[in-house]
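protien #1 (seq + structre)
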Amino acid sequence: MSVGRPEGGGGRLEDVVVEWLRRGAAFFGGPGWLARACVAYVVAVTLVLVAIELPKRVSELGRTTHDNASLSYADREIAGGNSVLADQLLAYEARSIVPPGEPYRVVIGSKLTKQASLPTTSLPGWLQYFLLPRRQEGTARWVVCYGCDPSSLGGAYTAVWSDDYGISVGGVG
């Protein structure tokens, strides 16, 4: 038997329609008809939604891909840090200044002149990730001064790098 044609090979449109109606009545008749009707409804709605939404989502993927491809290397590497750091250079400068085997500390103060979108309390955790294998230690010689008062660091502070926002990286002692 071929799909769409009733048995017996009748090719008239009326015969085809009558046969499909008969099959539909047999499918939806008897016990469990409500469950089968619900399944058929869900399948039909799903197919309509896929036909409408799939082209939109595919074009959005193209835009997202283009946006991601246009990011600089620094934006890709820093990524979420852009919402934590007031100055992206801080991450690179701290990584180049603090030796990999040395501990460092993050001191946050009120002298910061530019704020990132996330609170400054997020900074130590993000730097801990970015500056690996370096470890944070409360009394470390190396300091990331994020708007801090250098006189409160417990010794002579020498900034190796600083910016215009009150951020610096340097050593005490």
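ok now protien #2
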Amino acid sequence: MIIISTSQLRAARGLLGWSQEKLAEKAHIPLVSLLDYETGARKMLDTTAASLKYELERSGVIFADDETGVSLLPPPRVVPLESLNSSNDE
């Protein structure tokens, strides 16, 4: 069973700067389902929770195992191709 608390879900959206509409679209779920889940009006199905978690994690969100919070992965370090040469080899 996949568990995402309503506070984790809202915090994850906030970290990414996503609206409810954007997350619902990315996770391929009805907006009304997301709204109901975030307000606690209904329980989330496991398949819907999995879809939400997948999209958020794919975008860099890390969920705390104990449902206490979320964090965001740091952006990857980009090295310009022109700076790569044989002197960089180890």
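The two ends are 45 Å apart (CA to CA).
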